[in-house]
Amino acid sequence: MDIQSYISSGAIESYVLGLSDAAEIAEINALRLAHPQIEAAIQDFENSLEKQALNASTQPIPEMKQVLMARLKTEFAQIDPAIAEGNNNIQTPLAPVIPFSQSNTGSIFKYLSIAAMVLLIASAGLNFYFYQQFQTTNTRYSALLIQKNSLEANINGVQTKMLDMYQSMQMMGDPAMVKVMLPGTKGKEQNMATVYWDSRSKDVYLLLNKLPQPQSNKQYQLWAMVDGKPVDAGMISDCAGLCKLKNIPRAEAFAITLETMGGSSTPNMDQLFVLGKVG
């Protein structure tokens, strides 16, 4: 059995995506036990799907963690010990008890003034303390709100990726789709891609099975061979599932080259990575 030809046939992709029938599933389950190359190809394709699903995942902003940790670390150090221990019996200074006497009315008013001042100072101190607690709580709330919004954005991004992948699997299972396997060229046999060509609309979709990550100033470009001449079929960017490229009315083959960012009018044949014939 030609293991490399079997791997290039597309049976593994259909197996992983759940598009194989019972007989094909049983066959691959037996082959993956007998041939390590097939097991490795299955693992590679599963890893590529996972990477595509998580590729656009964004991380929470770094400042959020610093704000939360700093606030949590200093929170209890800023609280009054009695409150930190759960003692709510906070007592304010009481005015001294002054014996009333007709002969010392002036002294009574003096002591009452002092007591009122003490109560005013105590009240101001408590107001300042509770204001600080309010500010601390408000800052913590703002940090948590930022984290909540960031997490919601991540969830929405993952949901969008999963929906794209589901729609891609529906399209790949459509009988009207012409499947063209693009195995790696000489010296690049480990590479692989798959073109799905809509026989009705002639739209071209691409699944990147296994291609190395290009440099920041480079980009993959798909070509359609029409009457022996290469025709630009579109630039390849990050996408989950199938990447929709250009409309190609007819073609004898498809190929992918690595070009300068933005693409080229003619393919760089020294950077030809995969090539596959239609039919």
Structure commentary:
By secondary structure, the protein is of the alpha+beta class. It has 3 domains: 1-55, no CATH class; 62-169, no CATH class; 174-279. Helix content is 46%, strand content 20%. The protein contains 7 helices and 8 strands. The strands form 2 sheets. It has a 4-stranded antiparallel β-sheet with strand order 1-2-3-6, with helices on one face. The chain is elongated. Residues 82-88 have low confidence and may be disordered.
Structure keywords:
279 residues; alpha+beta; 4-stranded antiparallel beta sheet; 46% helix; 20% strand; elongated
Give the strand order of the largest sheet, numbering strands 1, 2, ... along the chain.
1-2-3-6
User: What is the first-to-last residue Cα distance?
Assistant: 22 Å
Outline type = elongated
Q: In percent, how much strand structure appears in the residues?
A: 15-25%
Return Rg in Å: 35 Å
Low-confidence stretches: 82-88
* Content-based structural category: alpha+beta
Query: What portion of residues is helical?
Result: 40-55%
| Total beta strand runs | 8
Number of helical segments with 4 or more residues: 7
- Total domain modules: 3
Main sheet summary: 4 strands, antiparallel
Average pLDDT, all residues: 78
Order of helices and strands: HHHHHHHEEEEEEEE
Helix-strand layout with pairing:
Blueprint: H1 3-8, H2 11-16, H3 22-34, H4 36-54, H5 62-74, H6 81-84, H7 105-172, E1 177-183, E2 192-198, E3 203-210, E4 218-226, E5 229-235, E6 243-247, E7 253-260, E8 272-277
Antiparallel strand pairs: 1-2, 2-3, 3-6, 4-5, 4-7, 7-8
Helix pairs in contact: 3-4, 5-7
